Amino acid sequence: MRFSPYNQATGPNIVVDGSPNASTLITLSHWPKSGTDRELKADTSAEIAFKYLDSPQFHVRSDIVTNNHFDQDGLVGVFALVDPATAARHRELLIDVASAGDFGVFRSRVAARINFAISSLADSQTSPFPTDIFTRPYPEMAAELYIRMLDLFPQIVAAPDKFKSLWESEDAKLTESEAMLKEGAVTIEEYPDLDFAVVRLPDRLSASRVHRFTSAQSESCHPLALYNATPCTRILLTQGQHAEFQYRYEGWVQLVSRKPSARVDLSGLAEELNAEENSGGKWEFDGVDEITPRLHLNGKHDTSIPAEIVRRRIEEYLRTAPPAWDPYDS
User: Fold this and answer.
1) Which end of the chain, N or C, is more open, meaning fewer C-beta atoms within 10 Å of its C-beta?
2) What does the pLDDT read at residue 259?
3) C-alpha 226: how far from its chain's center?
4) Other beta carbons within 10 Å of 168
5) How many helices (H) and strands (E) does the chain have?
6) How many CA atoms lie within 13 A of 67 on its CB side?
């Protein structure tokens, strides 16, 4: 089987970790309403791809696999179909890489490091790939990353230490963040009945560059340290008078191992907070259909509303507002 760019896959094809196009014969994806057969469903699209390989009754007549975006889960799933023999030898590690990429949750530190290496290769500021790749329209850039990464990926999996320059900086940030959690400098207070956790960060912490999926962002505590420490999928980060709420990715997809609490629309809460906000900033909610939507203050770092009041208001909405997102197939 071979990879084809999504917009060039006009013949019969298999889509991994995305949505089907007009010529797709089967979709192997945990995405919302993907239509993936119940027997193949799994938490990550990578694991769905492996289950497809294990299940001849589902096999279709196509030699093309494609995807409409580039990330770790997609790469592992596509690689499994392109090189099933090599993928099978590293199956558990590769599923762990996909989990680290999509959910920020990992079992093996090697998987976390491979995840970081993929992010670095897909980041224009750190990638050794030609810079012009990152100036192309997204579909072309994603396709080029797949083509290059499918060739390089077996080497990274077989000998991740040879690619230390790609992962060592972010790995050090993860180690630092894990230590702060262990020492109690960063605390997590869980409300299991609401699938809700409050993360409190010390004021002195400065933000540094890390990755979620393959996108760079600035964080005071590495997301993989936080997400590995709590199963809650509704997270409030507080740091002094800074407060930011986020739904984790687990709530956007069709998770199989458990069913996260349904997302509720926080647009009304943003309006209520804006009526009280005096900092000059504006509270915004990204929308329940975004992959990791945030309720955050735009334009200012610190809110004029006491962070504990923000927490209580969020908790009230999570407890009383109706579900507003359902990713599952009927």
Assistant:
1) C
2) 96
3) 13
4) 14
5) 10, 12
6) 33
Contact 73, 131 (CB under 8 A): no
- Cα 150 to Cα 82: distance, rounded to the nearest angstrom: 8
Residue 240 CB-density burial (10 A; 0-12 exposed, 13-18 middle, 19+ buried): middle
Read off the tokens for 328. 């599952």
**261 is written with which tokens?**
């609490």
Location of structure tokens 């320059």: 165
- 186 Rama sector, left if φ>0, alpha if ψ -120 to 50, beta otherwise: beta
Residue 243 to residues 24, 76, 175, 207, 307, Cα–Cα distance (Å): 43, 35, 24, 14, 6
DSSP state of 323: B
- Per the structure block, which two tokens stand in for 33? 């309403």
Find residue 244's DSSP bridge partners: 237
Give per-residue pLDDT as tens, 18-63. 999 999 999 999 999 999 999 999 999 999 999 999 999 999 999 9
- Report helix, strand or coil for 330: coil
Scanning 159-266, the segments in alpha helix (DSSP H) are 164-183, 223-229
Closest CA to 217 of 197, 189, 196, 237: 237
Strand partners, 187: 200
* pLDDT tens per residue across span 221-277: 999 999 999 999 999 999 999 999 999 999 999 999 999 999 999 999 999 999 999
Own/partner pairs for 38-43, CB < 8 Å, 24+ apart?
Answer: 38/329, 41/254, 41/256, 42/256, 43/99, 43/103, 43/253, 43/255, 43/256, 43/257
For 56-93, what is each residue's pLDDT tens digit? 999 999 999 999 999 999 999 999 999 999 999 999 99
- The predicted-structure confidence for 186-216, as pLDDT tens digits, reads as follows 999 999 999 999 999 999 888 899 999 999 9
The helix (H) or strand (E) run that includes residue 144 is helix 138-158
